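Protein: Slipin family protein
Species: Streptomyces sp. R28
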Amino acid sequence: MVEELVAVGVTLASAGAVYVTAAARVVKQYERGVVFRLGKLRPQVRGPGFTMIVPGVDKLRKVNMQIVTMPVPAQEGITRDNVTVRVDAVVYFKVSSPAEAVVRVEDYRFAVSQMAQTSPRSIIGKSELDDLLSNREKLNQGLELMIDSPAVEWGVTIDRVDIKDVSLPETMKRSMARQAEADRERRARVINADAELQASKKLAEAAHQMADTPAALQLRLLQTVMAVAAEKNSTLVLPIPVELLRFLEKGAQVATSGSGRPQAVRDEPPPLEPRLDSGCGGSNSRQE
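Structure follows.
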């Protein structure tokens, strides 16, 4: 009798162990469990940890709640200003409602991927090239709204959408490079002209100052000689005193004002006038 009771106890324990093994489930911290009982969705979503289901009756499906990073393949389109571009993007999304993500859509990852591939083409067609290159934050927000609108019904929340790269044709790249080079050259010329204008004003002020104090010009000349001598080159500088130049200039002015014309020009003798010799005429009469 005792042996029969022990055998029954072992049988029940084995059956219980098999039942617990078949019914036991472990849901991880980043997962949620959706239970279907005879094909019908149970309203309660199983949280992380140990949980039990009815073997053969319930079916547990685990849904990952982590943020998914999905790269979007390069999409080619034509902008509003008729420029062909290729746009690469990346989408960050997560499941907000596990039950809806399982029931409302067959594969929420594939659905979000297809929506992410069609949305950039719409954004490209509505935008200009300058907006794609410089105003990406606004375009990212537009893509996020376009993808998030249908994804909310699937129990998926779009965290953010970023445009990684905008590829341009080689001809457009060369044209933009030439435009940028011309703009830089224009700015350089304007800056050089402004510098020349400022330098001319300063030089004019310096000339007026040196005209009032002639000694300043001598000091500037000596500074120039020192600067040339410090370079250790073969250049020979022969400074001419400014006073000497002014003395020669005054002498030339005095000579010009005294005679009315420079003294270096000599008076030329008057031209000789032809004269008839009277003796020649007398001899001619005697010969006749």
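Remarks: The chain has a mean pLDDT of 78.
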